[in-house]
Structure formats: C-alpha cells, structure tokens
Amino acid sequence: MTEATKEKTALKQTPFTKFHIQAGAKMVPFAGFEMPIQFTGITAEHLAVRDNVGLFDLSHMGEFKVAGADSLAFLQRVTCNDVSALVPGKIQYSAILDNNGCFVDDLLVYRMQDSWFLVVNASNIEKDFSWLESHLSGDVTLANQSDEYSLLAIQGPKAQELMAQVTDYDLDTLTYYTHAEMDIDGQATLVSRTGYTGEDGFEIYLKPAQAAQVWEKVAELGKALDAANIGLAARDSLRMEMKMALYGNDIDAEHNALEAGLSWIVKFDKGDFIGKDALLKQKEAGLTRRLVCLVFADRCVPRHGYPLVDDNGDEIGIVTSGMHSPSLGKPIALGYVTKALSKAGSQVGIKIRNRIIKGEVVKPPFITPKSKRKT
Fold it and tell me: Is the separation of the CB atoms in 363 and 291 below 8 Å?
C-alpha cells in the first residue's frame, strides 16, 4: 500500500460522500475528511448560489456542547462577544482569542434552552476543544459532539423555496441568525438560518443515520429549482466576496480582532475575557494595520502571501485571500495593509514576481448579495 493510498484510507467520509462521487466531484483531503472541492467548476457553482440555490456538505465542521450552572460565565470568559445577550433560539458570531487578542478560532454560539451549542472550524476541532477544556472552571461540562452531526447547507435566493418543501415549519418566523427544532423527514432536527455565502440560507444538523436520506430528498426536490452541488472552492469564493474571514488566511494567531475589522464582535463592556487587556492596549495605542478589500483592474491571480505595495513600490502588507471574482469579473483580494492606506479609495498594488499590478481599496463587501437586493 502506497503512502497516498494509506492517507486516503485514513480520511473520514461523510454520509454524503457517495452522492458527491456519483455527481462527478473532484475529491480532496480536507481537515481529515475526503471532501468535494468542485463539481462542474468554481464559476458555475459560485453563480448558481448567487442566482439560484446550492447544496453544501459541511459535515466536517465541529460541534461542542457546553452546559452547567456556570456555563454562561465560562463562555463570557473564553469568547469576546457578549453571550449574555443571547436568548434561546438566537445565534451569535464570535471568536475565541488568546492572551494577545489574536485568534484561536472564530465560531458560532447557539443559545439552546438549557445549554449552549458551539460550531467551530473543521481544522481546529482538537485545538479548540483542548483550549476550552484548559479554561474550564466551576460547574461546566464540555462535550465534543462533532461525530454526532452531519451538516447540510442550502444557500441562495431560492433557499427558502427549497427548504419549504422539506418541512412544514413556518420559515418566515426563522429570521437571520436564529435557530429552531423542526420536523425534517419525520425527525426533530436543529436548523439555523445562517451561512457562509452572504445569500439567504439554512444549515441543517442531521443525525448521521438520517443524513443520506435527507440529502437524496433535498437533491430530488431541488431539481425543479436547478439546485446545484457546491464544493469547497466555490464556498471559499462566495465567502470572500462578502469579506467573511477564513481562519488560517485572514484571521490567525498573528492578527488580532481589531486589525481584522471585527471590533463589532468585541464587547469590552461585558466584563473580563481572554484577550481583553491586549485589545484595550491596542485600541489606545492605535491600529497600525487593517484587513481591507482590494480590487485589481488588470488580470492577475492574487495569491495568499503575495506582497502589497504603495505607489513607491514599498511593501506595506500581504494578501491573505485572493481570487478572480465570478460576480465582478475582476481579481479581488483581502489583505492587511498599513492603516494609512486602509481607507476606501486608497491605491495599493500587488507584487507578482517582478510586476506590480495596481489595485484599489474598496468598502466591504465586494458585492450586494441577490438575496438582499431590492427588487
């Protein structure tokens, strides 16, 4: 057995893997799973979600349960947003920070009736769990439930139209960043109105034994709406157009929450939390760099790590994420630049080999999602 064969054998598969292969997906290793990177092509899949509706396999994501009398105090300490603002049925975007105010991970916090449900990035499951476990105190229990869920996302302007065929729940009452338990294929299932695309959408947390049957049903019903299978590559391009940060690229242990433009999830007045002191010092001293959106007029491929330069050709930052935007038809990038060049309209170039291609800082996001456009 070759090393490549051993690696593939060791990869986890989701209950949806067989459907991906049947659909002709290109499968790749990702966060310990064998996942579809693309089906018909990045541009086609991307535009299918922007204009219509797409199905995503997100079963690789991590899910933790936090419970106990002191769980609120614990979550207030280990996350930077104000968890006390949540009531049952609400969801919050937040981050786990280290003592420097930099990212251990970003996550979603769900308020359940008598507990909390955390959704973390697939590549950080073990690291996040160990970090949280090391900060446990009082009456708090922490459980890794990642293997207990398969996750199907339905995203796009026609997401509700498709979802309405799968459940009798009044979806008009399920607003953005809320969740509810509803009947899906005869079983009580957690569903949230969330996503990583900027479009309308739902994320369905299925029991693995239930998952394949639900995928088949949704895919069959979706044919009438031209629902498309969507791979990880288009998921990345969709989130980039909305300036949704990707851990490991745009946010990491080297950049803090204020620099990343995520001050809106940092609640200094809620009390003490890990990273607060460092962020307060940074705020008082003033930021020296900011994560910005860049658009380039000339053809190029802005890759992670490429230098960003000012008009004199001096390096003032780096690209963290980049691609050719299917929606704009232009190269776009996210990157950290000096604060002086972080305002919209600032001219920032990208250095690719010995060539400098001119770009401009624009206000986020890059586009207005179709789900939110006025008609």
Answer: no
